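User: quick one - fold this with pyridoxal-5'-phosphate bound?
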Amino acid sequence: MRYISTRGNSPPRSFEDVLCSGLASDGGLYVPETWPCIERRTITADTRYADAAYEILSRFASGEFAGPELKADIEGAYAAFEVPEVAPLVQIDDNRYLLELFHGPTLAFKDIAMQVLGRLFERALERSKSRATIVAATSGDTGSAAIAALGGLSRIDLFVLHPRNRISEVQRRQMTTARFGNVHNIAIEGTFDDAQNIVKSLFADEEFSANARLAAVNSINFVRIAAQSVYYFTAAARLARPPIFVVPTGNFGDVFAGEAAMRMGLEIERLVVATNANDILCRAIHDGVYSTRAAEPTLSPSMDIQVASNFERALFEASNRDGAWVRGAMAEFAECRRLEIPRTVLVNLRARYEAYRCDDAQTLETIASVYRQTGRLVDPHTAVGVHAADRLDTSPETPLVVLSTADPAKFPESVRSETGIVPPLPPRLSDLYEREEHVTVLPNDREQVRAFIEHRLANV
Ligand SMILES: *Cc1c(COP(=O)(O)O)cnc(C)c1O
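Assistant: Sure. Structure tokens for the protein plus pyridoxal-5'-phosphate:
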């Protein structure tokens, strides 16, 4: 399988190249040249999660990792999960389900892909006897998932940038209390988008990028999308009819993994993009205008994003893979912070996606109403999804699956204020509030971040 750029101007690359790099050289994102077809009988209600993941990832890796190696890495990744199903589907109502994606080491869905990615990464570096530097911007959960997956590896240095005071205390402590020599936490005086822009500009700096051997583990890395498509298959296989998936959305990676599943042949009724008050995606799908506004801090900080990198992949597909158009459109967007989506592209997007916005007051009301109606605690990100599900106009036969992306214990303040219950951290994290933190605060300035990284790398 080869991978091409959404901007149509980079040479095709291998799976291993895509795994170990970041953006394509033309600034685009990698997508498979053709989508593999997963036949319906391949993944059934009885298929183990790790086996389903192997079925899908082996198509994307197509021989670049030997079968037993890939299998071992997938088994290793999911052995660390707290429940044997990995991603259990929990029924909460006649036709409603929560797909619980937070049973990994850092209590949010990002572990599901990151645990596999880390193992494959290490294997690839081992093979080429090389090192890599990973620089990642995080709105909270990517950072801790990356640290859990890559901390302590000998061929990788990991720099994680988070927006200072804009993530939850549990999220921050999960990152800053890690005790690995290869992990470096940076708090940026700015928003997530500022941090993401710094990372993007470091990647765009060819000299720095080559010297430091930069690689990405955020959802611009296609391997994450591939790994996340698995739970759409395992969940749908348990239901009698093609479901609607409701996806709490920030960078559009998770919901695009749903589109990937559809393109591999999975029958999905619709994908619902659920955003918080940072609603660029919602406005884009409703109004056909993709335009940024200032990012606003909310109770669901992992979705406090204005520029959704992965939306470019959806635009590429919705334009019938017109790389030249995507290139022009993204250049226009970079310049004007605004893009009018052409009618034909918008029609294709709307054929798959529907979108709803949920503000903080609605998020809290939803946490309260889920608790009242089902006795369950949901975190604020999941609540944004449930709120969208509440507003959908659907037939009662269509199963509605809300992706539950974080453990409520990761966001205890909102949960306590609405239910009176403090969701407990699992025993392995129970001393989180006592552990010592390690973090460097830097201004929103790419040169200072670059100098810091160079300094740390020189002292490895
Ligand atoms: C990252 C994250 C999201 C958003 O996922 P995207 O792939 O960025 O759209 C939603 N909820 C939680 C808890 C997250 O960590």
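One thing worth noting: DSSP finds 18 helices and 15 strands in the chain.
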